[in-house]
Amino acid sequence: MKLAPDINPSSLILQPAETDGKTPYLNSKVETYKEFATSTMADIYGFDKLENAEHFSVNSLQTIILKSKGNGHFETQELENYAQIGPTLSLETYDVNNDGYMDIVGVGNVFDSEVETIRYDASKGYTLLGDKNGNYQFSIDYSYFNNGEAKTIKKT
């Protein structure tokens, strides 16, 4: 973003709409973008609140499939790298290439993201072709290419 020469970036004020109502106290706590950018989590929320907050941890952010082994047990299989480019918001399974094995078609582009969040537009959709061993291979068939917003997919 290029600013007019007479605008001081450190004086730009955070607007209430930019916090999206999720942290309404943020505007009274942090007044400028510069202050926000140079603040730590403890500066903004307070050390005690962070220390006493419920903490979650994530072991993986990869898109996976879970294969039921019965009795509540599942096998985890990571999808091909191409499925990791963006979030998978929806997928369908069916035999795309009529070889008798289930395939996966996935989508996940979000254009209407929040002000403070980037647009998720890297994914062009993907097709993973299944084989007799239950493995999946990325298909380079571009007839499944999607360059638009895609939050859901439905087989018709």
Model description:
It is a single chain. With 156 residues, the chain is α+β, with helices and mostly antiparallel strands. It has two domains: 10-52, no CATH class; 64-144, no CATH class. 13% of the residues lie in helices and 20% in strands. It is built from four helices and six strands. The chain has helices at 26-29, 33-37, 41-45, 47-52; strands at residues 64-70, 73-78, 90-94, 103-107, 126-130, 136-138. The chain has a four-stranded antiparallel sheet with strand order 3-4-5-6, with no helix packed on it. A two-stranded antiparallel sheet has the order 1-2. The model is unreliable at 1-5 and 9-14 (pLDDT under 50).
Concise description?
Helices cover 13% and strands 20% of the residues. The protein contains four helices and six strands, in the order H-H-H-H-E-E-E-E-E-E. The protein has helices at residues 26-29, 33-37, 41-45, 47-52; strands at 64-70, 73-78, 90-94, 103-107, 126-130, 136-138.
Extended strand count: 6
**Runs with pLDDT <50, length 5+?**
1-5, 9-14
Shape by Cα distribution: elongated
Distance between the termini: 43 Å
Report the radius of gyration as a whole number of Å: 22 Å
In terms of DSSP E residues, the strand content is 15-25%
- The number of helical runs is 4
The description of the largest β-sheet is: 4 strands, antiparallel
- Share of helix among residues? 10-25%
String of helices and strands: HHHHEEEEEE
Structural class: alpha+beta
**Overall pLDDT, averaged?**
81
Instruction: Give me the side-by-side strand order of the main sheet.
Output: 3-4-5-6
How many structural domains in the coordinates? 2
